[in-house]
Amino acid sequence: MSSVLIFSGTTEGRLLAERLAGAYVPCDVCVATEYGEAVMQPSNLIKLHIGQLDEDGMRKLYEETGCRVVVDATHPYAELVTKTIKKSLNGTGIEYLRLERENTDLTVQHVYSDATECAAALTSTEGNILLTTGSKELHLFCKDDGLKNRLYARVIPSIESLNICYDNGLSGRQIIAAQGPFSEETNIAAIKQYDIKHMVLKESGKEGGEDAKLSAAIKTGITAHVIKRPVSAVENIEPNGISDNKVTPFGMNMNSVIKRLSDILDLKLEEEKLKVDLTGIGCGNPKLLTRQAEELIKESQHIFGAKRMLETAVRLNSKAVLHESYRADEIIPELKSIQEKGGQRVCILFSGDVTFFSGGVKLYSKLKSLSFIDVTMIPGISSLSLLCSRLGVSSQDVAIISTHGVHEEVWKKEFEVKLASSDKIFFITSGAEDVSKIGTLIKASQKNVRIFLGYNLSYPDEKVWEAKAEECIEITENGLYAGLIQI
């Protein structure tokens, strides 16, 4: 017997069951189909019940399991199931929690109250249609032959779904059987492959892939048609002794459910940690982003960084919330607020490499000590690596000086010591004024050196050249400067 019974029809339901099992809390999980069973990770602490239940069947299951809490993690569009669950709990004293995915913030022009209205609107359009709403309401889009012949239906890879497609007259070429949610790139690939002009999707939230579908539609210039969530799917529970612990109009997020279960079961269940990636983005040109950094920027719901870095990020991820901030005392309170809303993914951007004269190391140390954060550092291409590669010289034996954010008397003294003892010195600066001061120090030393300067490395106006000390002194053009001195 277990204290928690989960009606699972979404990714969130599966993740909740796995979270409970990971904390050694047994639970019972109801899934409607064998496909729902197939995607569930096997565990001795998760007892699966397969098949659709009516009200009496649900009540019988409550008695068998002895559950104290029912978590409704069914699909937002499983309106009838949610109604039946609520009704079956009348008079039982069992607490009801609605676990629901966060809604997307993207705005769409073509929105419909239900599938029937959407299908009617599509009959007056032209071009192929990618239907991403599953097989349940497929018949509504297949009533009109002209509409049916333009459909490409993406459904879960189950025998039941495939049979529904065939029963409604779709040919094999019109069926895309695959498990989601799908990335923006996968959606774009489908749009191009099938010459799609219209995409039909449900208001299924970020976890359901709604934002990835909408952003793919925007980038390819096709029309998105969104079917709104049923109003009754988000109604409050009737006053019948069942606790209504909704914290948003669409139910509770994962962390809220975890907190409530901890209280009910008198257990300490860990909240979902916020994934934070401290990401080096290179010297500025998006072409020098690592593939890992690019993917993390695309996946993140929130991105922090200086204005110049956010301009790079927004080209890759137009749907993310941007925060023009890079100070720890500003970022940490924001991260806590984001985590409390559901444990999303955050990317904090740093120029160059996150470990090379960067605030990333200090921020990593502070975030690592916070229990609600899972922090990772993602390296990037540093200005040292880039300049040395431009010059074709090794960076392994280079002495390094940074004037950026360092008191002038401190870095000048350090520079003079390295100039007297090193064969190669790499320097990064705060701008032209520092280059001029370095030129003055070199001239005063009377040492025979070669000076190589890099200006706006990686940008379209990049310049790399050899300069004399006198030329360095005369530099006034603003920009990003780095240099290499060979003695």
Describe this protein's structure.
This protein has 487 residues and is an alpha/beta fold. The chain folds into four domains: 4-101 and 242-265, Rossmann fold, CATH 3.40.50; 110-227, 3-Layer(aba) Sandwich (Rossmann fold), CATH 3.40.50; 274-381, Cobalt-precorrin-4 Transmethylase, domain 1 (3-Layer(aba) Sandwich); 384-486, 2-Layer Sandwich (Methyltransferase, Cobalt-precorrin-4 Transmethylase, Domain 2). 37% of the residues lie in helices and 21% in strands. It is built from 19 helices and 21 strands. It has helices at residues 11-22, 34-38, 55-65, 79-88, 115-122, 138-141, 145-148, 159-167, 184-193, 210-220, 254-265, 291-299, 307-316, 328-340, 360-368, 383-391, 408-421, 432-445, 469-473, and strands spanning 4-8, 27-31, 46-50, 69-73, 95-98, 110-112, 128-131, 151-155, 175-177, 196-202, 223-227, 274-280, 302-305, 321-324, 345-350, 373-378, 399-402, 424-428, 450-455, 463-467, 481-486. It has a six-stranded parallel sheet with strand order 6-11-10-7-8-9. Helix 10 links the parallel strand 10 and strand 11. The longest helix is centred in the C-terminal third of the chain and has 14 residues, at 408-421. Mean pLDDT is 86; it is low at 232-250.
